[in-house]
């Protein structure tokens, strides 16, 4: 199983880093399967970072093998939508970027991929391009997203990724974060909601 992530997919998130660069094709990076935070585990802030940030994101679970997937058939490659957090060691990411190195380590470390308690059938959503999701930190809303604001929609993302990587059953796509990313500290509690349903409830240690 691999985890494929899309960066810079919401304009308001790009702007919060004071950038006006809008990508013309999806920005893609991977997390190893060891990045998945085991269910019920707390998230432990890694020793190498002084600034780990949450990024709440809509997830898509791939249901069969595919490559060079045409956009009009992309919907056949997933049945379920989920919610996740792409934890990012922001200080390390900036350091690596400044050196012109891949930012992999800042995004792919152990526990950096939170996958919500369950996936929900896509048939339960009236419109996949109008899904609401949000994240609360210590009871306060910190991120609010809607998939209509994605620069690249799910089907476009699948088409693009599958030009480079064969998609396999069980692969998970993190589709990018809306604005409002911010740091976590010891004892924080993060709760994530996909529409009305709470799918993430984790403690930070
Ligand atoms: Zn992200």
Task: Summarize the structure in short.
The chain has four helices and 14 strands.
Strand content: 25-35%
Q: How many E strands? A: 14
Output the helix-strand order.
Answer: EHEEEEEHHEEEEHEEEE
CATH topology, what is it called? Fumarylacetoacetate hydrolase, domain 2
Task: Give me some keywords for this one.
four-stranded antiparallel sheet, binds zinc ion, alpha+beta, 14 strands, 205 residues, Fumarylacetoacetate hydrolase, domain 2, seven-stranded mixed sheet, 15% helix
Explain what the structure shows.
The mean pLDDT is 97. The protein has a single domain (3-203), classed as Fumarylacetoacetase-like, C-terminal domain (Fumarylacetoacetate hydrolase, domain 2, Alpha-Beta Complex), CATH 3.90.850.10. The strands form three sheets. Strands 1, 2, 4, 5, 7, 8 and 11 form a seven-stranded mixed β-sheet that branches. The protein has a four-stranded antiparallel β-sheet with strand order 10-9-13-14, with no helix packed on it. A three-stranded antiparallel β-sheet has the order 6-3-12. It is α+β, with helices and mostly antiparallel strands and 205 residues long. The protein is globular, with a radius of gyration of 16 Å. Helices cover 15% and strands 33% of the residues. The site of zinc ion (ZN) has 8 residues, from β1.
Topology summary:
Elements: E1 3-7, H1 11-16, E2 27-31, E3 52-54, E4 56-62, E5 78-86, E6 88-89, H2 90-98, H3 104-108, E7 113-115, E8 120-121, E9 132-137, E10 140-146, H4 154-164, E11 172-174, E12 182-183, E13 189-194, E14 197-203
Parallel strand pairs: 1-11
Antiparallel strand pairs: 1-2, 3-6, 3-12, 4-5, 4-11, 5-7, 5-8, 9-10, 9-13, 13-14
The structure holds zinc ion.
């Amino acid at each position: 199983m691999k985890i494929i992530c899309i960066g810079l997919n919401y304009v308001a998130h790009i702007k919060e880093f004071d950038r006006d660069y809008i990508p013309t094709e999806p920005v893609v990076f991977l997390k190893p399967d060891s990045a998945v935070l085991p269910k019920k585990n707390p998230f432990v802030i890694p020793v190498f970072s002084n600034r780990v940030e949450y990024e709440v994101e809509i997830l898509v679970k791939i249901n069969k093998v595919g490559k060079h997937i045409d956009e009009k058939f992309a919907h056949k490659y997933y049945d379920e939508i989920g919610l996740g957090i792409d934890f990012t060691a922001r200080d390390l990411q900036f350091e690596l970027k400044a050196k012109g190195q891949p930012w992999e380590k800042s995004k792919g470390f152990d526990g950096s991929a939170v996958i919500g308690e369950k996936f929900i059938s896509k048939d339960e959503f009236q419109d996949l391009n109008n899904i609401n999701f949000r994240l609360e930190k210590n009871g306060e809303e910190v991120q609010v997203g809607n998939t209509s604001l994605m620069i690249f929609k799910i089907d476009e993302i699948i088409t693009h990724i599958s030009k480079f990587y064969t998609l396999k059953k069980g692969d998970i796509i993190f589709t990018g974060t809306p604005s409002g990313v911010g740091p976590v500290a010891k004892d924080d509690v993060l709760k994530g909601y996909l529409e009305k349903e709470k799918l993430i409830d984790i403690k930070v240690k």
